[in-house]
Each structure stands twice: as C-alpha cells, then as structure tokens.
Amino acid sequence: xxxxxxxxxxxxxxATLGSEDPAADPALAVRGLTKRYGDTVALDEVDLAxxxxxxxxxxxxxxxxxxxxxRVLTGLEERFEGRAAVDGVDVRDGGSDAVxxxxxxxxxxxxxxxxxxxxxxxxxxxxxxxxxxxxxxDGLIETVGLDGFAESxxxxxxxxxAQRVSLARGLAYEPExxxxxxxxxxxxxxxxxxxxxxxxxxxxxxxxxxxLVTHDVEEAAYxxxxxxxxxxxxxxxxxxxxxxADRPRERTDEALLAARREITDALGV
Length: 269
Ligand SMILES: Nc1ncnc2c1ncn2[C@@H]1O[C@H](COP(=O)(O)OP(=O)(O)OP(=O)(O)O)[C@@H](O)[C@H]1O
What we know:
Layout: E1 28-37, E2 40-50, E3 55-59, H1 66-73, E4 81-86, E5 89-90, E6 99-102, H2 114-119, H3 131-143, H4 159-172, E7 177-181, H5 189-206, E8 209-213, H6 217-223, E9 226-231, E10 236-242, H7 254-267
Parallel strand pairs: 3-8, 3-9, 6-7, 7-8
Antiparallel strand pairs: 1-2, 1-4, 4-5, 9-10
Helix pairs in contact: 3-4, 6-7
The structure holds adenosine-5'-triphosphate.
C-alpha cells in the first residue's frame, strides 16, 4: 500500500537489481542506464529504484531524458546500456505485463468513440462487450469527468478532454505500475487539480506504483512521495527530494512549499 505521508528515505541508487529474493526487488529499477540517439546522449548512467506502492515524480528541463526514461521502462526502447527492470523482470526479457502507460500525446483512435478508445486499454482477456467491462469503462468515464461524451469521437473533443480519455485508457488495465508522461499538461488549472486528486484516489485504492513525468513543480510536490530531479543534457539524477507532507495533503501545506523550494533550487530556477 502507498505510504500515508511518511516520505521515503531510501537512496534512489541503493536498491540493487536482480536480487536473489524477488520480493526484495523494487517495482521499478534502472541501474547505470545510458541511452543514446545517434550522437545525442539522452540519459547518462542513471540509477533509480522505486518501491512498490510508491508515488514518484520525475522533473527536469526540456530534453533531459524524462520521456526516454519512461519509454525504456515500458520496453519501447530496446537499445540502451545498463539495466532496467519492472517487478524484478528485465525489460529486455519482456518486463512486467502489469505496466500501464499514459502518453503525453493522447494517441486516440480517430474512428472510435470515447468508450471504445478507453476499452482499448482493457486487459486482453476481457471482452469489452461484457456488462462488467462496460461498467468499468463507464466508471472510468465518470472518474475523468467525461460523462455525456461516451459516444463522442476524438475530433469532437478538446485537447484536455482527449488527454483525459488517454488517462482513463491507461487506468482501464488496472495496472500495478502506472507510468504517466505529463498527463495533465493540457488541462486548465481547475480540471488539472480534479484529475490530480482522481489519480491520488486511484493510486490509494489500488496500491499502485506510479512514476509521473511532469514539468509542473507544484504538481510534483503535491502528488509524490519523492521527486527525482533530472538535470542537464545528457540527463543525470541531480537530486531526489523527499516530500514530507502528510496525506491527504493540503495544497498550501508548508511542507509542500518547502519541497517546491528544494526542487526549484535543484533545477536552478
Ligand atoms: N527518437 C529520437 N531520436 C533522436 N533523438 C531523440 C529521440 N527521442 C528523444 N531524443 C532526444 O533525447 C533527448 C531526451 O529527450 P526526451 O524526450 O526524453 O526529453 P524530455 O526530458 O522528456 O523532454 P520534454 O520535457 O521536452 O518532453 C533530447 O535531446 C531529444 O532530442
């Protein structure tokens, strides 16, 4: 289960991969991860371990390799140096099938309506026409605040609405590990706050592990147990900030403001 405000104290580079005791493996782990695109070094010797049930945010300047880190963990990048594992299984060996990913771009099927687009995220062995599956999808439509739009196609949605469909699709799978790449960046402030709280509810209810990439320092501090600050190009871990605020959190909590200061200091802004 997620912690309830106790910030993690563990050094991100401390946990090892390939432990003989599988129960000791972190939910997400990279060790000595270097990723190159031609002459561009996107990530350089990155070490990071995220425990089961932990909520970790990753922030850093544009181009420091945040999306690349998630792409490696989902198995979308095959060529890299070092190791990356989900639930102790190396991503090169297929990783874990309990991973859900929400991309920065909604990537919806243009010809399918909202319900069908969300149903794409259901596990492969679930029949989308099954009443229980339809209920699950309808529940997700409600969760992301899209009641009344189940029959709409992507072309009829705003950018923020499309992004919420994408989030619901990522949740349809009921993943144990959820990787989110700036899922709220296109939302207006009020909807963003609502969706952040929805995500916290999902995380708490499911005891999921979450790694969230964001540019939004306030969002990172409000949501995460730990905030990993990537810096530079190539991306390396600058520092890891523990967020010491109790949950449920007040957005004005002094501890969140302190965490935000630490993060912005590390970012040099
Ligand atoms: N497919 C690709 N081919 C070539 N270079 C790439 C590719 N994908 C990413 N890069 C490069 O790798 C570096 C890291 O990119 P990445 O998208 O991971 O950064 P980011 O921190 O997520 O950026 P942003 O915050 O702007 O989304 C950048 O220099 C980028 O230009």
